[in-house]
Amino acid sequence: MRDVVIAGVGSTRFGRHLDRTYGSLVSEAVTTALGDAGASAGDAGLVVYGNSGAGVVYGQESVRGQHAVRGTGLDGIPLVNVENACATGSTAVNQAWLAVAAGQVDVAVAIGAEKLNHPDRSRAFAVMTAALDQDRLDEIRDDLGTGGSGSVFMDLYARWTRWYAERTDATPEDFARVAVKNHAHGALNPHAQYGATLTVDEVLAARRISGDLTLPMCAPMSDGAAAAVITTPEIARRWGAQPVRLLATVVGAGRAGAYGELVPATARRAFAAAGVGPEDVDLLECHDAASPAELIVLEELGLAADGGGVGLLRDGVTTLGGRMPVNPSGGLGSKGHPIGATGLGQLVELTDQLRGRCGDRQVEGARIGMAENAGGYLGPDAAAASVTILGAA
């Protein structure tokens, strides 16, 4: 297998873009990524397009990517459509990496895009419900009970939060501190959906969504697109790009009836492929669809001891300026969560961090960055996961 790099990245601002089309969002992300790499659309031998909700929300099925890339210059280039719950964008990168590493193509463009906002908000909630095991939908709802959130996934995160609190000394104030930290990070990110900072008291006093989760602890429904140009080190040098090494990209699948094994197993495979360990990670972008998930994921990835995620938070380790900042982009809660673009958006952040391009939110001296996504639900664990590790060139 060949060495592979990310030569260029691009992203729209995440947010509510009711006035923009998929094509508009994708064109912005792709044009930025190609320009960043010093490449042209004609250099690409493959396009991998990730999207989760266009069929449910807008009725666009089957040829989502072919529809979205019109006018970008990528028209007519072989294209594969990818859908993998909240891991969709990072799975698109995985498939692009595989094609380049295997020598099938020299250049691939990975794209993630989503438009969840629609005048009929029930369509976005239907996307979430569609990510559950439909054969067991009634059973899952009966098992969860009535969380009152309107979103079964926030009810799920409320359950996982309760389980975490029962086995650790984490408190609602700690969960609020995660949201406060990430909104402070997001306030430094021009691509973030939310730019306001919050206090712990404000988070705790906000509208309750489900269990201990209040509104600022929950990721918003977002629109946006992100893209990455993936190639070999030799081609990146020829373009004059500033590449970042794609050390590992691993996709995992959950098992019905299992809990707490999917992300740890995927992380172990990623560390083995990258040839690094948890102690080498300088920063993390993780899937904090609800703020307490950040503490859980730190432990699942092996970046904190069992029950130790909350201690890293309290000690300031995970804040900008700490030893291992987590979600310097603002995370899903502040930056936003356009499902198909979320994972790729994380990798845009890591790529720019490892190049030293993040301004006031720069993680100084960062050499190894890690990203994690998990989504869908088989019960009681997620259905899909992805872990990606990048290294500075």
UniProtKB/TrEMBL annotation:
Pfam families: Thiolase_C_1, Thiolase_N. InterPro entries: Thiolase, Thiolase-like, Thiolase_C_2, Thiolase_N. The keyword Transferase applies. Residues 4-193 form the Thiolase N-terminal domain. Residues 265-379 form the Thiolase C-terminal domain. SUPFAM superfamilies: Thiolase-like (SSF53901). GO terms for molecular function: acyltransferase activity, transferring groups other than amino-acyl groups. The keyword Transmembrane helix does not apply. Keywords: Transferase. PANTHER family: ACETYL-COA C-ACETYLTRANSFERASE, NON-SPECIFIC LIPID-TRANSFER PROTEIN-LIKE 2. This is Acetyl-CoA acetyltransferase. It comes from Pseudonocardia endophytica. The lineage of its organism: Bacteria, Bacillati, Actinomycetota, Actinomycetes, Pseudonocardiales.
